Structures are given as C-alpha cells and as structure tokens.
Backbone:
C-alpha cells in the first residue's frame, strides 16, 4: 500500500505538471485539457479503491487508468511519433512494484495491442496524426517522462537494494546459526571445551599422527576431588561456576596443540601429543595438577580445588582411544584411593586391582541372599559402674571361598556402588531384631548402636526403614543409637536434616563417631541435639605415654560435659589407658581390652561374664 501511494503521488504530480506546463507555454485543445484533467483523477481514485478493496486492485486501476489516459492523448496527437510513447516503459517500471507477474504480462499484451491498433488506424486512415509539436512542447513531454521514469527506477532499485540487504542479513544469520550449531555440537555448553564426542575425535587424530611420526601420546583422565560436596552443600549454581573456572584453568595448563575436553560431570580428559618419550608426560601432567589446585571464588564462596589424575600412554598402555581411556580411568581411581590430589600412571597391577574391585562388587550384590553377611557386637562399657550399656553392631562378610573379607575393603565399595542402601536396611533390621531379643530376655535397657553411611542418610526411605524395623521387632526407639561422622553435621542437605530431625523426634539417639578427625563444630552438635561423642581411637592409642593426647582427650571430655553430652573412648587396649580415661572423666570405653566384636551368641556370653564381674566388684566394694 505504501508503494502504491508513492507511485500515485508521482503519477498525479506528472499529470498536474503537464497540465500546468501546457497551459502556460502551449495552446492546448479542449480534448487535451479534459484528458490531462482526467489523468489527475486516476491516482487518488486508485488509492481510494485500494483502501476499500485490495491494494492489488488499486494498482491495476492506476496502471490501466494511466495507460488509457496516455493512450488517448497519443491517439489524438502524433500517434506512434508522439513523445507520450515514453510513458509506457515508465508504467512498466511501476508495474513491477504493484502487480503480479501474470498481471504484468497482461499489461504488456494490452500495450502491444494498443500500439498495433494505433499503427493500423494510422496506416488505413482511420485516424490522422496531428501536426508535430514544437520543440519546447516535445522537451516538456520528454522531460516529464524521464523524471517519472527516473523516480520509478529509483523506487525499483531501492526495493531491490533493500531486498538484497534483507537477503544478505538472512544469509548471514543462517551462516551464524550454522556456525553456532556446529560449535554447540562440538563443544560443552557449560565450559566451552570440546565435548566428549569431539574430544575423542581430536585425540584419535593425535594418535594417528603419533603412529606416523613414532611419537607418544599421553591420555590423562582428570577428576575434581569432592565436587559432589560442593554441589550438595552450595547448590548447582556454585557447582557450575566451579566447573567453569576449573575448565578455564585446564585450558591454559596445556599446550595449544593438546586436547582438553569435558568427559562428563566433574571429569575431564586431556590428550597430550607429540611426546618424544613417556617421561615428558610426567612433567606436563604435574603442571596440570599445579595449575588446577588453589582457591576458586564461586558465588561468594572460597573453594579449594584439587584433582586426581590418571594417565595412560600410547603406545605402551594401549593402541586405541577406548583402551587408553579405560586404563587412565583405572589409574585415576588409584590416585583417589591414594588420598586424592595426586597423579598415577597406569601399570598392569592396577588392572588386577580393578578386576578385584569388579569381582567384589559382583559378589557383594548377592551376599545378603546367600546369607553371607552377619553382625558382630562389641560392648561399650560404663566406666563408672563397669556395666555394659550399649552394643555396637559391626558388619562382617564371610565369603564361601575367600573367607572373611575386611569391612575396610568391602564397605567403601558398597558405598561407591550404592549397595550400602540395601545392605544398610538389612543391618538396621538385624540390629533391631537382636536388640529386641536380648531386651526381652536377660538384658533389658541394653541399647544397640548402628553406623550410618552418608549414602544412607541421603536415601529417601531411611526414616521409613528405621520406623518399620522398630515397629516390626517391637523395639523402643530410645534403645537404638545411630552413629554418624561429624563431617555429616556440616552438610546442607535438607534430606539429611529432615531425616535426623524426624528420628530425634521419634526418640532415637544420635552419636557422633570418630570425633576429632573431621571439621568439629560445636554449634552443629547443639543444633542436632547429639547425645554422645565417640573420641576417635587415634587419640586414645598410647594415651598413657603421650601427654599431648591426654590433654586433647581431657579437653574433649570437658567440652562435651559442658554441652551435656556423654563421651565414649574408642580403641581402649590397655588397663593403663582405661585408668587414665576414668581419671579424665570419660563416661564410656570401647575396645579390645573390654571385648572384641563377636557374633551374637558369643557376645551374649561375654555380656554375662562382664555383668558377673561388675556384680562381684560392686559386692566387694560394699
């Protein structure tokens, strides 16, 4: 519509200019005046029709109306020799802006038919050319036609330029989108590093080059230590920022020719190529470890970065990407087992350890069904009365071919594989069943203590599991004590907090195990209303010969008493240690001096013996 209005103004102006020019400088006939006046009416009429009907109809009226007026002027003037013939090409230029291709073809056909009719009429005398116009009249007509043609041409060219500019902008946007899509398909959205798939492609190119040149390639598997704690405690926003900054450090820690890719989660993979020997990889991976560690500021938190790196070297450790990744992963887990913040290069013995781990996890999955798990109980002695008040339930695994497998060996595997949740349910039920039995028989009031794994505390059914076990075995909640590590008290995990709060409301007791080895915080002890602190055996061992340890244990006991808490000393192995603990005011003792962990039947016999000894001591004292 906008273009129709512009052309209507242009054509209307041309007719008005012609009318004025001829009126001022030439002697016009009445017919010419009528025709030019009619030409001035066509443009506004076409705009009115376009607004009432459609712009396309208005365009057709403008073009055909102008052609009719100009044709009539030519017919009554000089015919084919008239300067007005120049108007037809101008109308065709305008038609490009107003009508469809088919309508344009019809317009040309109409013009050609008119010209043919004009020629025939002149040839056969049906019409007669008027006397030729003078030079100035011809100049006026040609000038007006040229000006109209130039204006129409400018409009056409301007539309063409705009269309080309829009097309170029669309093509550039398409190219940018394609480039962005290629980048996103090859890179990790969070870190901007290569993603796992394209990281593999680039490393495989390094391997192909190394085969041709006889060089070595180191494939390093990097895992950020304790990242899950950051995510769980500070949230995913801080976790994402932590990952981004670690990725940026990794990028600058290697050479431009090396490959850095995000493998997934908190894991990265490095391809270090063009190594003359495997020894070069040692220094390069040490540089990565040094560059990565330090402090990162993420969402108002200062976070310490360490990582565990496993390295496999082509061609000695493997000939292809898959085997190198698998062995680097094994080496990385060996670095974690060594205390984290370390580098380990793959060697064959790690394969044996990895196979052993897989076998143990496989066997552990069926251990409950095969009745291979059992509980041993170790008494906790009241040091004031020499009576047993609590029995700690400790998990044992008796394999049919391997024999007894150490808890230190299989419990970490149960936690890392998630099996600890299922095993933990069994432990809770078995411990409650045993405690209910001895409370019904000869030992009323004797509590049972059960260790809880961090994995169990995050499970959704912990409270339900404990309540079901207490109800099923009819055990009073006050006779169940749950032992958790002090580091768990620092977790900002709503599920953990809700579980502990619900269990405390039910009457279950909570003890903090291995106190002194983690991040001690007195505020958290009060918040969770803990009843018992268990002093780690590392402080109790050689207490009789180590004065600093005595000072530490004495301070912990006094602090606990000031908070209304009871204390248990773990690892009591000598009579001298037991005497010192009594002098320091420690409430309870646990260790081999009192009794070793035993199966239920043996534990109950030991309990009878300890109670009898306590009775004799009380009688003798009387």
Residues:
């Amino acid at each position: 519509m906008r273009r129709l209005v512009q052309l209507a103004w242009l054509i209307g102006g041309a007719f008005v200019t012609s009318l004025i020019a001829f009126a001022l400088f030439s002697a016009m006939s009445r017919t010419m005046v009528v025709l030019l006046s009619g030409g001035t009416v066509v443009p506004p009429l076409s705009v009115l029709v376009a607004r009432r009907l459609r712009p396309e109809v208005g365009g057709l009226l403008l073009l055909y109306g102008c052609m009719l007026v100009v044709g009539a002027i030519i017919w009554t003037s000089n015919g084919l020799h008239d300067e007005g013939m120049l108007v037809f090409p101008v109308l065709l230029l305008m038609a490009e802006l107003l009508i469809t291709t088919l309508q344009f073809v019809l317009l040309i056909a109409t013009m050609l038919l008119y010209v043919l009719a004009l020629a025939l009429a002149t040839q056969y005398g049906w019409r007669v050319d008027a006397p030729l116009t003078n030079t100035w009249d011809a100049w006026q007509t040609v000038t007006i036609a040229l000006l109209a043609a130039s204006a129409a041409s400018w409009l056409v060219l301007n539309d063409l330029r705009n269309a080309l500019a829009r097309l170029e902008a669309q093509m550039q946007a398409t190219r940018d989108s394609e480039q962005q899509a290629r980048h996103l398909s090859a890179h990790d959205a969070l870190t901007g590093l290569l993603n796992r798939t394209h990281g593999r492609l680039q490393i495989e190119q390094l391997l192909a080059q190394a085969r041709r040149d006889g060089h070595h390639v180191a494939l390093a598997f990097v895992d950020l230590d304790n990242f899950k704690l950051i995510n769980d405690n500070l949230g995913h926003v801080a976790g994402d920022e932590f990952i981004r900054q670690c990725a940026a450090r990794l990028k600058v820690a290697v050479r431009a020719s090396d490959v850095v890719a995000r493998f997934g989660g908190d894991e990265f993979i490095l391809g270090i190529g063009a190594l003359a020997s495997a020894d070069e990889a040692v220094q390069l991976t040490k540089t990565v470890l040094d560059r990565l560690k330090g402090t990162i500021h993420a969402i108002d938190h200062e976070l310490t970065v360490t990582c565990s790196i496993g390295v496999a070297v082509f061609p000695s450790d493997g000939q292809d990407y898959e085997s190198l990744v698998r062995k680097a992963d094994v080496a990385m887990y060996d670095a974690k087992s060594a205390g984290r913040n370390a580098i380990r290069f793959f060697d064959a013995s790690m394969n044996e350890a990895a196979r052993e781990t897989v076998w143990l996890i496989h066997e552990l999955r069926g251990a409950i069904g095969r009745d291979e798990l059992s509980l041993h109980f170790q008494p906790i002695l009241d040091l004031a009365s020499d009576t047993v008040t609590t029995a700690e339930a400790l998990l044992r695994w008796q394999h049919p071919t391997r024999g007894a497998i150490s808890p230190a060996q299989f419990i970490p595997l149960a936690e890392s594989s998630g099996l600890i949740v299922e095993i933990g349910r069994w432990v809770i039920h078995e411990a409650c069943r045993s405690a209910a039995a001895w409370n019904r028989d000869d030992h009323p009031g004797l509590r049972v203590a059960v260790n809880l794994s961090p994995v169990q505390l995050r499970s959704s059914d912990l409270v339900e599991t404990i309540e079901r076990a207490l109800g099923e075995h009819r055990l009073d909640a006050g006779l169940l004590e749950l032992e958790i590590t002090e580091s768990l008290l620092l977790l900002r995990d709503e599920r953990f907090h809700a579980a502990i709060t619900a269990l405390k409301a039910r009457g279950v007791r909570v003890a903090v195990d291995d106190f002194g080895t983690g991040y001690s915080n007195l505020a958290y002890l009060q918040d969770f209303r803990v009843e018992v602190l268990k002093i780690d055996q590392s402080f109790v061992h050689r207490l009789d010969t180590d004065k600093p340890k005595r000072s530490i244990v004495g301070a912990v006991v006094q602090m606990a008493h000031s908070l209304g808490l009871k204390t248990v000393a773990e690892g009591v192995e000598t009579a001298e240690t037991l005497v010192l603990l009594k002098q320091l005011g420690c409430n309870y003792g646990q260790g081999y001096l009192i009794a070793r962990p035993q199966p239920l039947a043996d534990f109950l016999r030991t309990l009878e013996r300890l109670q009898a000894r306590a009775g004799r001591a009380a009688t003798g004292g009387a």
Notes: The domain at 196-349 is CATH 3.30.70.270 (Alpha-Beta Plaits).
